[in-house]
């Protein structure tokens, strides 16, 4: 009887293994697969009952055994031939379907199914080998058992030896076969055995095969890899990782900005990226394409990696990544708008904290931009935030490795999700091409070379180790022939060389000082992510951003891009002085006053309502992209200078003489205690209604309040309302005081105080006086009404613009 036990166990092992292998052969989605497995078990049972037992215990006749073995072999062969035929047909059908979808430009063909069929064909080959071995086993039994039993008899010594040999063989088989099975399966993928089963199960449960969008994307070599290898390559596993919400992942004026160590917490970045994909892409997530890049600050590489892995796991079809994860904000906006290889790009993720310092203890930031290339509007950032407060898991393709330091295409098959591509692109080319389309490069080149005015026009440009360096070098030196020695800090550094990449009079001090020597005709500085600009004239003549916007708007016809377009209006953020309003009025165009933050310009530009817009915070731009653009602003100035052949100062003074001057200053109280700052705002807001109609005096000048409120904006395009956008005190002569809390800081609070006043063009005694002198009384009034010193303990601001 013990022979029966041993033999049976061996046979069972073979049965289970066969059933399991058969499980692969039939379509993943088909229920019939279970039946095939059951069928295999049945066959094996019959095999044991009708073959092993009769042979071992009832001394069956030789004829019976041979007949049985032969029948078995024929049967196995027939079943396998059938399966093989089915799979080949299926493969042909799918190829045909793929070809057809490609012709019809339908892009939702599921290629994974084809791979699967090809896998099946391989498994069938494997089974054929195994069935051959089974037949061999049957003959082995005949020789070693049946012959001794029937012809030698169990009583003889030789018979006993033969039977023992067979038993040893079976026992060894019983031990080895399960190991061989597991080893075979593990070999197919570097995954634990259980996970392999899990992946298969998941794929089946979701009734989903790999969605692939463009058939051509799958290179020939990818197929070859499938055909030549015996591996059942299931792609990269998606790991569902449990997590818990982090407080404060609320995007501010321009994305989420925090200190680097905060971003370095386990799951912090992953959570936020998952929230961006869910809220930002919504139902478009599966198969979406995004552009990814940033200003190269500390943590950019790590964050890019996380974005790639989380995007792959979430079913995005493609990421377009700037080489080394590097792209300036304007360049990224352009890449979104441009589309990629003829297909729409659904948005982008920008890794920057812009003008905030970088490095291991500095700031990092993540911002989501939409399909139009602009920063996500409030309703999107709000839902991103909502998700971060409830998140309990994120998806990640942990094992995916992408070397985005090298330009090229990288492709992956993600388990149960689909095909995923990373296109690593050159960070500079597309943007430079865009600038060439907008401006008249040859004309600017001749200005710099001195061909227009008879003397060389020298620029001094400071990239502050931020993102503009590579763009500025390519455009200014390679395209426009400027002297490379006049480009400062062009190498992007993870910590901006320890500096504060904010192009204002305080943080770009060296540039201002060098301009004062009078050697250069124009100076400009740009911020960390390349969207801000500061323009200076000869001898450090400062062009206030509100004026810069107005001058560009006034001279819009100098820029070739606008000559062929209809210009309908301009816009500025509320705290920006109203110089551009006067230009719009004189040109008979519309002007819009939006809350602080570039996202509010997006709708206006998309609707064709505005061509140029700007903010007092050194942001100027146009509808060529949906972000402000530092390099564009510089080129706009150079183009105007080339057309008008005057100095910066002449152009600005003439502007004032024509329109009057909107004098502006901004006081920043950076990093003050958040509680004090909030109190100041609450205190001031409570008093606003009582201010209306009241007189305020300082230095012998008196102003009467006309309006005092908390600015609210209704988007004229979609009707959305943004409230609490800054406290305004507007005086009867149009002078204004504005108080806002910054929304871009990472720690503490920053209070911004904006003061502006209008000097009419006929007031020639005051028109050209320095801004601080003209605005002194208003500043004193402002500091007094808000009790600045009492609430913040600060006697002076950190930055004055
Ligand atoms: C500041 C500026 C605002 C600008 C924003 C983003 O915001 O005031 O005009 O749009 O930064 O610019 P806040 O909330 O700190 O005042 V950037 O170059 O940092 O992306
Ligand atoms: Co910026």
Written account of the structure:
The chain is α/β, with parallel strands linked by helices. Helices cover about 45% and strands about 20% of the residues. It contains 26 helices and 27 strands. A seven-stranded mixed beta sheet has the order 2-6-5-3-4-9-8, with helices on both faces. A seven-stranded antiparallel beta sheet has the order 20-21-24-25-26-19-27. Strands 11-10-12-13-14 form a five-stranded mixed beta sheet, sandwiched between helices. Helix 1 runs antiparallel to helix 4 (about 110-150), helix 1 (about 1-25) packs parallel to helix 5 and helix 9 (about 270-280) packs across helix 12. It is elongated.
List the helices and strands and how they pair.
Blueprint: H1 2-25, H2 32-58, H3 62-103, H4 111-152, H5 157-187, H6 193-205, H7 220-228, E1 239-242, E2 256-259, H8 260-263, H9 268-281, E3 289-294, H10 300-313, E4 318-326, H11 329-338, E5 348-351, E6 363-369, H12 378-390, E7 393-396, E8 408-414, E9 418-425, H13 429-438, H14 441-449, E10 459-462, H15 468-479, E11 487-488, H16 509-516, E12 522-526, E13 533-537, E14 542-543, H17 545-554, H18 560-563, E15 569-573, H19 579-587, E16 590-594, H20 602-606, E17 612-615, E18 619-622, H21 630-644, H22 648-659, E19 661-672, H23 674-691, E20 695-698, E21 701-710, E22 713-714, E23 721-722, E24 727-731, E25 736-741, E26 749-759, H24 764-767, H25 771-785, H26 788-792, E27 799-800
Parallel strand pairs: 3-4, 3-5, 4-9, 10-11, 10-12, 15-16, 15-17
Antiparallel strand pairs: 1-7, 2-6, 5-6, 8-9, 12-13, 13-14, 17-18, 19-26, 19-27, 20-21, 21-24, 22-23, 24-25, 25-26
Alpha-D-glucose-1-phosphate-6-vanadate is lined by residues 253-254, 354-355, 527, 531-532, 573, 596-598, 615, 617, 619, 742-744, 752.
């Amino acid at each position: 009887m013990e022979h029966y036990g041993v033999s049976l166990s061996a046979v069972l092992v073979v049965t289970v293994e066969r059933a399991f292998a058969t499980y692969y052969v039939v379509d993943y989605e088909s229920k019939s697969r279970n039946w095939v497995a059951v069928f295999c078990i049945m066959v094996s049972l019959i095999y044991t009952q009708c073959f092993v037992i009769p042979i071992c215990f009832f001394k069956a006749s030789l004829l019976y055994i041979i007949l049985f073995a032969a029948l078995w072999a024929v049967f196995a062969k027939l079943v396998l031939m059938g399966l093989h035929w089915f799979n080949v047909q299926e493969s042909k059908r799918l190829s045909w379907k793929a070809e057809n979808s490609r012709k019809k430009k339908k892009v939702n063909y599921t290629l994974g199914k084809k791979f699967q069929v090809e896998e099946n064909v391989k498994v069938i080959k494997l089974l054929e080998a195994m069935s051959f071995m089974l037949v061999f086993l049957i003959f082995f039994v005949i020789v070693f058992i049946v012959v001794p039993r029937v012809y030698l008899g169990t009583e003889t010594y030789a018979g006993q030896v033969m039977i023992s040999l067979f038993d040893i063989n079976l026992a060894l088989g019983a031990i080895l076969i399960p190991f061989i099975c597991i080893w075979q399966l593990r070999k197919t993928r570097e995954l634990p055995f259980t996970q392999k089963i899990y992946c298969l199960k998941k794929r089946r449960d979701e009734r989903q095969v790999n969605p692939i969008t463009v058939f051509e994307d799958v290179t020939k070599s990818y197929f070859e890899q499938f055909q030549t290898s015996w591996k059942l390559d299931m792609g990269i596993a998606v790991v569902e990782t449990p997590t818990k919400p982090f407080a404060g992942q609320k995007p501010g004026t321009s994305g989420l900005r925090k200190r680097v160590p905060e971003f370095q917490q386990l799951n912090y970045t992953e959570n936020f990226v998952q929230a961006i994909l869910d809220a930002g892409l919504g139902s478009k997530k599966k198969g979406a394409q995004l552009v990814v890049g940033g200003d190269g600050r500390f943590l950019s590489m790590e964050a890019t990696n996380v974005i790639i892995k989380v995007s792959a796991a979430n079913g995005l079809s493609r990421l377009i990544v700037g080489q080394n994860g590097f792209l300036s904000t304007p360049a990224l906006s352009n890449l979104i708008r441009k589309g990629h290889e003829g297909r729409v790009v659904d948005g982008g993720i920008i890794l920057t904290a812009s003008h905030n310092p970088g490095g291991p203890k500095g700031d990092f930031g993540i911002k989501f931009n939409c399909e139009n290339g602009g920063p996500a509007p409030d309703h999107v950032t709000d839902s991103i935030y909502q998700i971060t407060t409830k998140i309990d898991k994120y998806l990640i393709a942990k094992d995916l490795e992408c070397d985005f330091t090298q330009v090229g295409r990288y492709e992956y098959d993600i388990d149960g999700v689909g095909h995923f591509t990373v296109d690593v692109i050159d960070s500079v080319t597309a943007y430079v091409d865009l600038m060439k389309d907008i401006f008249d490069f040859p004309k600017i080149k001749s200005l710099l070379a001195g061909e227009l005015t008879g003397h060389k026009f020298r620029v001094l440009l400071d990239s502050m180790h931020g993102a503009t360096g590579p763009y500025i070098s390519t455009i200014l030196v390679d395209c426009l022939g400027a002297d490379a020695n006049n480009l400062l800090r062009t190498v992007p550094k993870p910590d901006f060389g320890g500096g504060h990449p904010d192009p204002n009079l305080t943080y770009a001090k060296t540039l201002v000082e060098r301009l004062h020597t009078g050697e250069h005709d124009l100076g400009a500085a740009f911020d960390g992510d390349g969207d801000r600009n500061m323009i200076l004239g000869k001898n450090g003549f400062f062009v206030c951003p509100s004026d810069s916007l107005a001058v560009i708007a006034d001279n819009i016809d100098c820029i070739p891009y606008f000559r062929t377009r209809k210009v309908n209006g301009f816009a500025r953020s509320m705290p920006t002085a109203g110089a551009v309003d006067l230009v719009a009025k004189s040109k008979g165009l519309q002007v819009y006053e939006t809350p602080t933050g570039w996202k509010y310009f997006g709708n206006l530009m998309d609707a064709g309502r505005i061509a140029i817009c700007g903010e007092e915070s050194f942001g100027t731009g146009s509808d060529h992209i949906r972000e402000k653009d530092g390099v564009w602003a510089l080129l706009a100035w150079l183009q105007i200078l080339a057309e008008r052949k005057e100095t910066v100062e002449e152009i600005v003074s003439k502007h004032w003489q024509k329109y009057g001057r909107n004098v502006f200053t901004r006081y920043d109280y950076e990093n003050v205690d958040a509680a004090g700052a909030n109190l100041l705002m609450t205190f001031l807001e409570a008093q606003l209604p009582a201010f209306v109609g009241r007189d305020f005096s300082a230095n012998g000048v008196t102003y009467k309040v006309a309006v005092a409120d908390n600015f609210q904006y209704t988007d004229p395009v979609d009707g959305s309302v943004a409230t609490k956008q800054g406290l305004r005190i507007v005086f009867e002569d149009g002078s204004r005081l504005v108080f806002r809390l910054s929304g871009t800081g990472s720690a503490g609070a920053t209070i911004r105080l904006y003061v502006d006043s209008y000097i009419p063009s006929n007031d020639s005694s005051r028109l050209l006086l320095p801004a601080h002198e003209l605005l002194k009384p208003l500043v004193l009034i402002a500091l007094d009404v808000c009790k600045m010193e009492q609430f913040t303990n600060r006697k002076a601001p950190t930055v004055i613009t």
